[in-house]
Amino acid sequence: MTTLADIYTERMKCHPFGLALYHPVSSRDLRPGCVGFFDSLGCWTPIAHLEHSESLSKFGLRFPTQSLTVARTERIKNWAPKVGTEVQERAGGVELGANGLATGLPVDASLRVEYGTSADTGAVLITAAPVTRNGYHYQAPFKEWVKSNARALLHGPLGADIKEYGLFVATQTYATEKVALTAWRNAKSKAYFGFGVGATGLGELSPNVQWYTGHSESGWNVHEAEPGELKVVFVGGLAYRRLWPLSNQLHRTSSPSRGSGGTSVEDRILVTGPETEPLELGCKVWGMPFGDSGDCGSDEDASD
Question: For the whole prediction, is pTM greater than 0.85?
Fold first, then answer.
């Protein structure tokens, strides 16, 4: 059955920032350089970090042979709400209705927004400004690391999970202090969101402005970061998954939350060894290179 995480990720593929996370992850657990996988519910499971030798040696993995080049941090101030494919946003003339029953919003919501679509499904992401983008330049060192460690990964203690869910190598993340998101299955559904005094528009939403969640078919998921962390809402990187023989492909599916989206397959890795069946992994890329801003603007931080 298609999950809300699948719907959310699929609808958000219209944005170039990477894999959209229905379950935002702490920046302590998911940051550039992390290796792990997304399970059937779209939840992140970390394995190791490529620049932490102790986490690598725990699973018999080797340190990268090529240096990893850290990109300059970007803090994006004018990050407007992101809507899924075919979702329309209406921020003016949204009435509360009798006692707010129509929208589920309180009278304190000075700015009220309605989201709807004529498609079968929809998704919305709202974040507090700024959104912080961190990551590395260049894909080659990460691809080389996977090739060098593919056998250890597939035949190690987490091999069964990697064969089932794939492997994701994070090369960049977009994270924020506060996030609200929703997804729905019904074309007739609408989602409502409100903001308190101080919200003059949707282009730059301060974390200090009061947020109000209104009606949504599946409800709104609201996440706030703890001190010293951010919540990751998009992750870019390399998604590897097992390529099945044609006879088996007809009976296998791979949800977007497990890395089946992104660009077309760019690389294939054949993993062989004594007394083991050959396995082939296909790689797809999520996200855009540093230097591209996609559909938002950014201010670069002076620090790395």
Answer: yes
